[in-house]
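To illustrate the input format used throughout this study, we show a single complete record. The first block contains the structure-token representation of the backbone; no residue identities are included at this stage. The design step must infer an amino acid for every position from geometry alone.
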């Protein structure tokens, strides 16, 4: 029969063996038992803090997009970032480009409603380019030849800048509203709140980014990186848009002065996706059907608004290459600028290798030139097939 002291010793030994089952007890494991409560508290705090640590590790981005819709490359680029669990989308800035800004705001807000992410701020950006006008574009067409695509200014589907015809938003008008803060001020505020942590993914005309640079001369240096879709060097294509002018690209052409300001700035890093690599990508109906098999509202949306005539993955590639650079198989470094002289080459891409660049120039750009299509397509389909992450 054990006395009370012996019983306590036996219980202590058994607890020691359970906690440390493969260690031989030497009768002095009491120190481990004493600290067990502290260890449990440590584990509890570790679990408690894990979500915060994970959130902190997510890469911060603001996407600046001419968000034409429904469906299409612009909205697919936005969702490439929103769908990635490794990305924190701080906000979506919307600028006139492929469509007028207010129409694009409606498409963006409605899509965020569909996927349950109305917590992401949608910032109204510029309605008009800094200098370029529709009247000038129409005159240039008479003087220098046909302009194959004019975006919001195109005669096809033309309407006044601030009108949003119900027929233009077939997915339904959103109930959510855009932010009261404008795009340029939001970008500046986020760059100052998170210095050297925010990437700007500018995949439309660069008007908003140029305004931010003019408002805050430190904006570029405070950002982490600029990623943009824009410019054209020497695309291999029979598309009439580049047949007569291979240096023409819509985002640069729509607001050449804005692109000039942005490309002349000094960013910590700048990455560009030109026409040359964009036209090697295609969003196919088979991909849309595969995404829809996931059974999500987003998958059904992409399939419903799939358009076989507009299948280049312009902006998705820029977003995906930032998320996973390994999808890119070739790049070159150029100093880039835009021709802002009014004439037949207004808005065309200018480029120089390192040894020929002008004395006054901006940050050299990592220009992406080739892509692993299989890897890119898989990344995109996987992201779009997954449930939308919550904030």
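Output of the design step:
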């Amino acid at each position: 029969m054990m006395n009370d002291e012996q019983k306590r010793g036996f219980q202590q030994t058994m607890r020691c063996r359970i906690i440390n089952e493969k260690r031989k007890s030497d009768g002095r494991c009491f120190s481990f038992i004493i600290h067990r409560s502290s260890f449990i508290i440590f584990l509890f705090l570790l679990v408690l803090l894990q979500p915060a640590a994970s959130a902190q590790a997510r890469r911060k981005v603001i996407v600046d997009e001419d968000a034409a819709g429904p469906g299409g490359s612009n909205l697919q680029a936005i969702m490439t970032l929103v769908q990635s669990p490794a990305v924190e989308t701080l906000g979506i800035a919307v600028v006139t480009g492929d469509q007028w800004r207010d129409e694009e705001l409606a498409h963006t807000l409605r899509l965020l409603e569909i996927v349950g992410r109305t917590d992401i701020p949608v910032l109204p950006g510029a309605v008009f380019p800094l200098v370029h006008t529709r009247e000038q574009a129409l005159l240039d067409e008479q003087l220098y030849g046909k302009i194959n695509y004019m975006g919001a200014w195109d005669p096809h589907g033309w309407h006044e800048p601030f009108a949003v015809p119900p027929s233009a938003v077939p997915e339904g008008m959103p109930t959510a509203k855009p932010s009261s803060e404008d795009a340029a001020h939001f970008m500046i505020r986020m760059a100052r709140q998170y210095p050297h942590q925010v990437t700007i993914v500018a995949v439309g005309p660069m008007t908003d980014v140029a305004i931010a640079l003019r408002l805050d001369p430190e904006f570029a240096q405070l950002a982490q990186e600029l990623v943009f879709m824009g410019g054209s060097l020497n695309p291999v294509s029979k598309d009439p848009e580049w047949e007569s002018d291979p240096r023409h690209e819509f985002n640069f052409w729509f607001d050449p002065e804005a692109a000039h300001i942005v490309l002349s700035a000094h960013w910590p890093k700048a990455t560009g996706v030109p026409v040359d690599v964009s036209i090697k990508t295609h969003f196919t109906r088979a991909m849309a059907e595969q995404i829809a098999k996931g059974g999500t509202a987003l998958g059904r949306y992409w399939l419903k608004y799939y358009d076989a005539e507009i299948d280049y993955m312009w902006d998705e590639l820029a977003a995906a290459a930032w998320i996973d650079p390994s999808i890119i198989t070739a790049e070159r470094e150029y100093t880039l600028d835009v021709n802002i002289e009014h004439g037949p080459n207004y808005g065309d891409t200018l480029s120089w290798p390192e040894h020929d660049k002008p004395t006054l120039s901006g940050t050299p750009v990592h220009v992406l030139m080739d892509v692993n299509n299989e890897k890119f397509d898989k990344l995109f389909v996987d992201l779009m097939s997954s449930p939308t992450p919550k904030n």
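Structural context for interpreting the output: The longest strand covers residues 328-338. The CA atoms of residues 270 and 365 lie 5 Å apart.
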